[in-house]
Amino acid sequence: MPACRPPARGTITPVGGILTGSTVSPFVAEWLPRVVAEMNGRPGPRRALDLAMGEGRHAIPLVEAGFVTYGVDVAVNRLLTARRVLVERRLDVLQWAADLDTYPLPARRFDLLFCTRFLLRARWDDLKRSVRPGGFVMYETFTTGQVAPGCGPSALRQAQGRPEPCRGTAGSGPSRAMSRGGPSSPDHLLHPGELARAFDGWIVLHSEEVESPAAMARLVARKPGA
């Protein structure tokens, strides 16, 4: 992992930096300043890990909030897209490409574990260990409510005779789950209550699950300790 560099400033500026065609999640816009406020007064640089950063729509507000920001993603083309915009804005994010299913994450390294629209349930323990005591997690991703009920593989297997294809996204046949957008595979969708259970024992600042406009679970929590 690249060496840390000190942040340019230690307090947040308005969350307004976004990539072309992208928007900052309202959840992030509301809760990132609150997390920063909780950290104010703590010594040393603050490190944030933007997990599966994609094209970096949230890397900009993380840097602007004063975090030494690390961004990891498996897709090199997305990292390069993010890099072009970050360079134009003279913002520094320490990026690297890796398969998060297997890539080893350092323990007790980050003050903020940050993730939107990505699920790595097989590595909950590794993700939690990567956060320093007293550090935070901000997590937002899709739940199973995003898939239309009655569609998808399990429902179709139970149907009698020849099932009628699910209506909705073009090209979704009887072997695919119907989604309102985002992933449709159950491997990439949170079960009800799963996110909160994954961080059981942490101090919860915010936890919710919503069904519209998209089915999402959101969590802000602090790891017990210093």
Which series of helices and strands comes N to C?
Answer: HEHEHEEHEHHEE
Outline the biggest β-sheet.
Answer: 7 strands, mixed
CATH architecture of the largest domain: 3-Layer(aba) Sandwich
Number of helices in the DSSP assignment: 6
Mean pLDDT, rounded to whole units? Answer: 78
What topology, given as strand order, has the largest sheet?
3-2-1-4-5-7-6
Total strands: the figure is 7
What oligomeric arrangement do these chains adopt?
Answer: single chain
Proportion of residues in extended strands: 15-25%
In whole angstroms, the N-to-C terminal distance is: 24 Å
Under the CATH scheme, which class of the largest domain? Alpha Beta
Overall body shape: globular
C-alpha Rg (nearest Å): 19 Å
Q: What is the CATH topology descriptor of the largest domain?
A: Rossmann fold
Q: Level of helix content?
A: 10-25%
Give the CATH H-level superfamily of the largest domain. Answer: Vaccinia Virus protein VP39
Please tell me the total number of domains: 2
Q: What key attributes describe this structure?
A:
226 residues, alpha/beta, Rossmann fold, 2 domains, 7-stranded mixed sheet, 6 helices, disordered N terminus
Give an account of the 3D structure.
The chain is an alpha/beta fold and 226 residues long. It has two domains: 26-143 and 190-222, Rossmann fold (3-Layer(aba) Sandwich), CATH 3.40.50.150; 147-182, no CATH class. It has helices at 26-39, 59-64, 76-88, 124-129, 153-158, 194-198; strands at residues 46-51, 67-73, 93-97, 110-116, 131-142, 203-210, 216-222. The protein has a seven-stranded mixed β-sheet with strand order 3-2-1-4-5-7-6. α2 links the parallel β1 (46-51) and β2 (67-73). The longest helix has 14 residues, at 26-39. The two termini are 24 Å apart. Residues 1-21 and 150-178 have low confidence and may be disordered.
